[in-house]
Design the sequence.
């Protein structure tokens, strides 16, 4: 089985998920007058939630892109592991909208972290199912290595969700930290493939 | 005629259908306060409807992917048979939203089954129109074989719709059963192509 | 310049246009009770408008697919002629929604015809701009020939719009007739390419 | 790293952004009667905003297409420069909708210009990050040259935003002027690649 259509379908879903999030950023409506800069200022929690989720989806797209460049074989289990990842990522617009509209209240911030945690775990499972089809000395296996970043992220999401129950802004801070850790594209794969 | 653009267009439509369904999962709004975990709990029928439809669309994408890997020739009739399938699948978000919002009431559950039945029948017609362009000993024809799963699904959808009139939850149970039957990817094609 | 990305972008836009139309088919909401089959029956004008537009977009996708199979060279003018076609097709969901919600009243039916007319004219311009890059004895030029179907469609749209002012249903009848004329895929190109 | 998936993902996002803008053009609803041509006339600011943004996104797609035809190597920084461009372009539907619904009032016109400015600057950064991976005598470097059009556009956006504070229509006029300047596809690249 070749990986082309899996990549195309994933690109399609990610492109749509990243774009429909902006639909949650509703055009301000008000009785009589709604074309003021002050109307716009009220949108900043929605806008900053959107920006954070955009960065997260960009990270997933980048990592997915890097990951599948090292992949040579795709089996049936990988198709479902990939769909499982897309399922959780497709819930991000909902979690983003709820968080933005409620100005980073406890429950939405915790839900947002839970969706990130589920997506992170799904990515971990996808990597595992890919490794099962590749040898231990394949470029993919070498590029993944111990996957410290992936495991650390899962721990940090749990920490973020826990902290959010005390102070929602701390949760957001931890999620932003994880995004920053990943903003550096997966150089392991780039480096390994470069050789 | 080559099959590349048909696959790309189908991937596009399926990616959009699978993603816009999540737009039916409206961010909870309430007077004053809507950022509670209890608001989220009310969404479980919408969420579980979404999850079931996501699995169904994943199955269709997987089977479509497998099917067209064995295809070598595509004629004009196949283009329309494929669009016919996409038409019914494009109605799934509507049926999903109606079912979720009405907590699995009779009419929405029956409609959901009817859309699944129509899509299943359209897939059957697509397979037939593809077989008409391939020899009886082609990999495609061997891989499809007697298409027992496809025929059984159509019967089960009818059973599910009928049972839904008595007890909607039984209908959902049957639709879930069909999804489980298909969750195993179409190993027939994988096996035949493997040789 | 190669045509691959133009095809991919067109497929993307057409896939989205064909799919977001279904968002106009709103899940029925009513005070207290909205999960009845009677609620569904009220949706038939929206549903039949959707079905007609789906067929039209399917025809455009099919013809676009056939057309570009015969194309060997794409210039800058073709990119814009193609975007111009996509612009009018992107207005079809709006026209479809307005027509369906107003039960085929005069103004929406006339607007629907106007969008079809503009799209048909844009397709004609696209074909002209492609022919300008190909010789008179190229497969493309032979396949297009006198383009009788294309010209007839434009005339019929005008007739349909005019008739709609007298009796909206006659307009719909003419638009449906044009769709039926085109449902046969562009065999001219298939036949010519077959040689 | 090959550029295929970057192009495909960008095409996907641009196709969705260009299409979901039309969702802002809401089907007119009114008590009792809303199927009049006069209801349609009220939509002209929304329609003309949509048309302007469609042209802008078409320009970006065309230029992106031309740009990446000359590209031979893509690094990790380019992936993020590209996502940064897509981020600003994804905000165009929101700015378009706000501007159209408020009949070209000051704040929305200024915001629209700000989004165009940010997108223009992001495109400039993308070109820079691509040049960093290519030699000074590569086809890409020659095709870009001094990038006078790109720099002029940024200046004109600032002028447009400033003028909008005095007279919103002047802002729109300047944005339209920039679109006209770019409507001519990037012949520099076409010419250079032609040799």
Sequence:
């Amino acid at each position: 089985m070749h990986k082309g259509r899996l990549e195309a379908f994933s690109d399609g879903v990610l492109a749509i998920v990243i774009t429909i999030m902006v639909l949650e950023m509703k055009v301000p409506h008000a009785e009589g007058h709604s074309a003021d800069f002050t109307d716009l200022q009220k949108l900043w929690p929605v806008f900053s939630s959107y920006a954070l989720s955009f960065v997260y989806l960009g990270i997933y797209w980048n990592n997915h892109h890097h990951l599948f460049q090292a992949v040579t074989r795709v089996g049936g289990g990988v198709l479902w592991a990939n769909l499982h990842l897309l399922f959780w990522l497709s819930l991000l617009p909902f979690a983003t909208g709820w968080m933005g509209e409620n100005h980073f209240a406890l429950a939405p911030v915790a839900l947002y972290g839970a969706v990130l945690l589920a997506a992170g775990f799904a990515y971990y499972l996808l990597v595992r199912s890919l490794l099962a089809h590749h040898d231990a000395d394949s470029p993919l296996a070498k590029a993944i290595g111990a996957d410290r970043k992936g495991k650390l992220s899962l721990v940090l999401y749990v920490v973020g969700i826990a902290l959010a129950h005390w102070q929602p802004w701390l949760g957001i801070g931890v999620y932003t930290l994880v995004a920053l850790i990943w903003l550096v594209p997966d150089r392991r794969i780039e480096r390994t493939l470069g050789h």
Q: What stands out?
A: Residues 4-194 of chain D form one domain. Residues 44-69 of chain D form the longest helix (26 residues).
